[in-house]
From TrEMBL:
Monomer. It comes from the Bacteria. It is an enzyme of class 2 (transferase). One of its GO terms (molecular function) is 3-phosphoshikimate 1-carboxyvinyltransferase activity. This is 3-phosphoshikimate 1-carboxyvinyltransferase. 3-phosphoshikimate binds at residues 21-22, 26, 166, 168, 315, 342. Its EC number is 2.5.1.19. It comes from Iocasia fonsfrigidae.
Length: 430
């Protein structure tokens, strides 16, 4: 599918962004491993999350869809999963593949995980190495890439310092740790999103956090089914927040957005850049902090984005690059080499897109330097490279531009945000 961008004069409205992708994956996993029924409310029905859902169906977990985003899962218990009778397809989803690998390394059966062309190029040695230290039996193409074959075995606990701050690696090891003999101890170089830790604690697991260290000691071997209400995805909200900030005379109210501090570095950057973004009705829902967000068009200035902030906004960096192109002065993004191993190389892609738009941008090995503000230009084609965040980033930039940009392969948007275009049409006044 192709998408042609369209200029918009202002954005107005009251929107509910769909459920958080990271929390949705984890809700499916832990509800499946619990005993008894769990109700998931506000589950994101994007392609990535449906891959995780389907994986558990293939492993014998009864999952019922009651209505949009509302599911009942009859958990089979920690030891109740069954061998799938086919290859489990993780599609485009790094989260599905990495979290499932940790879990499956400890099951009493054999699994093969594969994915699309993008996922089969993403590094898996970051989970394979520590899982092998736990005595996992995993085979991979060139010892790093999917398809992965996993022969479940009895694992031993690990005491491990992650080389990069990665919630996927941390979560894979915690899932494996649920089945290991002994205490799992993990340390991160910086705090990555902590949804797994919060949800494990919510399911009654003995998990202790102190700064960047985590200790998991499974004293009870039973998670109890429960209700999980999933907040709106801050990473998806970031596209609408950006649009409202950069388009004159705009104002949006976004309801029920997850503002977990390990995940909402984007809001800090917006504040730092002078963006008018107000959080109201702050509350905690199913263990996750949530707020409604009011955002208004603003005059922005450049910012420095690096270090510990990076893992808290890693998926938002492509759209932050658009904010930076409209901000007065220099924005420096550093310490973000992880962007090169996402669904596409997001540094290379953003450099090429921004250059086409007429932005003065300099590539760094681990980021970029953007000089603004620039009147963005259109009249070219881009390929999303199968990367949903790249496609949505260009669509938002296009709201400012007279001449359309043609986004090829825009179908990738369904990976995380199937309602993106409908919601954009709902609030944009052309
Ligand atoms: O755990 C998760 O749900 C995610 C973790 C991040 O990846 P890394 O752990 O590789 O940084 C993020 O980019 C991804 O979109 C979702
Ligand atoms: C990197 C992402 O997801 P995943 O790693 O799950 O494919 C993302 O959604 O931007």
């Amino acid at each position: 599918m192709n998408l042609k961008t369209r200029k918009c004069h202002k954005l107005k409205g009251d929107l509910t962004i769909p459920g958080d992708k990271s929390i949705s994956h984890r809700a499916i996993i832990f509800a499946s491993l619990a005993k008894g029924y769990s109700n998931l409310i506000g589950l994101l029905e994007s392609e990535d999350c449906l891959k995780t859902l389907n994986a558990f169906r293939l492993m014998g977990v009864p999952i019922e869809r009651n209505s949009k985003g509302n599911y009942t899962i009859k958990g089979v218990g920690l030891k109740g999963l069954k061998e799938a009778d086919r290859v489990i397809d993780c599609g485009n989803s790094g989260t599905s593949m990495r979290l499932l690998t940790g879990l499956l390394a400890a099951q009493d059966f054999y699994t093969v995980l594969s994915g699309d062309t993008s996922l089969r190029k993403r590094p898996m040695d970051r989970i394979i190495k520590p899982l092998r230290e736990m005595k996992a039996k995993i085979w991979a193409r060139r010892d790093n890439y999917a398809p992965l074959s996993i022969k479940g075995s009895q694992l031993s606990a690990i005491n491990y310092t992650l080389p990069v701050a990665s919630a996927q690696v941390k979560s894979a090891l915690l899932l494996a740790g649920l089945y290991a003999d002994g205490k799992t101890i993990l340390r991160e170089p910086g705090l990555s999103r902590d949804h797994t830790e919060r949800m494990l604690q919510g399911f009654g697991v003995n998990l202790k956090k102190s700064g960047l260290s985590i200790e998991l000691d499974l004293q009870k071997d039973r998670l109890e089914g429960q209700e999980i209400v999933i907040p709106a995805d801050i990473s998806s909200a970031a596209f609408f927040i950006t649009a409202a900030l950069i388009i004159d005379d705009s104002e949006l109210l976004l309801r029920n957005v997850g503002i977990n501090p390990s995940r909402s570095g984007f809001l800090k950057v917006v504040k730092d850049m002078g963006g008018d973004c107000q959080l109201i009705n702050k509350r905690v829902v199913s263990g996750e902090p949530v707020a409604d967000i009011i955002v208004k068009s603003s005059k922005l200035t450049g910012a420095n984005i690096s270090g510990d902030l990076i893992p808290t906004l890693i998926d938002e960096l492509p759209i932050i690059a658009i904010l930076a192109s409209r901000a007065e002065g220099r924005t420096v993004i550093k310490d973000a080499a992880e962007l090169r191993v996402k669904e596409s190389d997001r540094i290379t892609n953003m450099i090429s897109i921004l250059s086409n738009m007429g932005v003065n941008v300099q590539e760094l090995t681990d980021g970029m330097i953007i000089n603004g503000p620039v009147e963005l230009k259109g009249g070219f084609e881009v390929d999303s490279s199968g990367d949903h965040r790249i496609a949505m980033t260009v669509a938002i930039a296009g709201l400012l531009i007279d001449e359309p940009i043609l986004i090829n392969n825009s179908d990738s948007i369904k990976t995380s945000f199937p309602e993106f275009i409908d919601l954009l049409n709902k609030c944009s006044i052309t």
